[in-house]
């Protein structure tokens, strides 16, 4: 069972890194307009702010992936709600925090994508756990 949890953790870390890279690519593809010097500085500050939020996003996803390892504990793994919390609690918290600030639409998009991927991962994990439990 621990191998199954570890595999889901590795997959989650890889998904987190891919979403982080995608987020950074989207930041680099933001269009810039030739304007006066003040607006140019504001565009630079906006890019720096997005890069800072992308690092916070990466840290939140890595912490979220470590909570999946709590499923190695039998009581957490066998309880549907506790297992659900290990997969979705931190990503859902990050989405709620992102909803507070309207200016971070790109971060919200990637957070929701991560939340959807984690939901699918949780459903696959529960299916595998139920299959292993029934085989014993």
Defining traits:
136 residues; 85% helix; 0% strand; mainly alpha; 5 helices
What does this structure look like?
The structure is a single chain. This protein is mainly α and 136 residues long. It has helices at residues 2-28, 37-67, 74-78, 80-100, 105-135. Helix 4 runs antiparallel to helix 5. The model has no long low-confidence stretch (mean pLDDT 81).
Fold blueprint:
Blueprint: H1 2-28, H2 37-67, H3 74-78, H4 80-100, H5 105-135
**SSE order, one letter for each helix or strand:** HHHHH
Basic shape: elongated
- Helix content, binned percent: over 70%
Residue stretches low in confidence (pLDDT < 50, at least 5 long) are none
Structural class by secondary-structure content: mainly alpha
- Tell me the radius of gyration: 18 Å
Total beta strand runs? 0
Distance between the termini: 12 Å
Strand content: under 5%
**How many structural domains does the protein architecture include?**
1
Number of helices: 5
Average pLDDT score: 81
What's the short story on this structure?
The chain has 136 residues and is mainly α. It is 85% helix and 0% strand.
């Amino acid at each position: 069972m621990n191998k199954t949890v570890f595999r889901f953790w590795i997959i989650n870390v890889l998904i987190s890194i891919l979403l982080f890279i995608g987020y950074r690519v989207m930041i680099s593809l933001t269009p810039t307009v030739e304007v006066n010097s003040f607006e140019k500085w504001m565009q630079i500050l906006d890019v720096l702010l997005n890069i800072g939020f992308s690092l916070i996003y990466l840290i939140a996803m890595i912490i979220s992936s470590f909570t999946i390892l709590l499923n190695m504990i039998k009581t957490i793994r066998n309880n549907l709600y506790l297992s659900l919390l290990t997969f979705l609690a931190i990503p859902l918290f990050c989405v709620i925090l992102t909803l507070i600030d309207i200016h971070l639409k790109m971060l919200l998009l990637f957070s929701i994508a991560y939340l959807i991927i984690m939901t699918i991962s949780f459903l696959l994990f529960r299916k595998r756990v139920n299959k292993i439990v029934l085989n014993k």
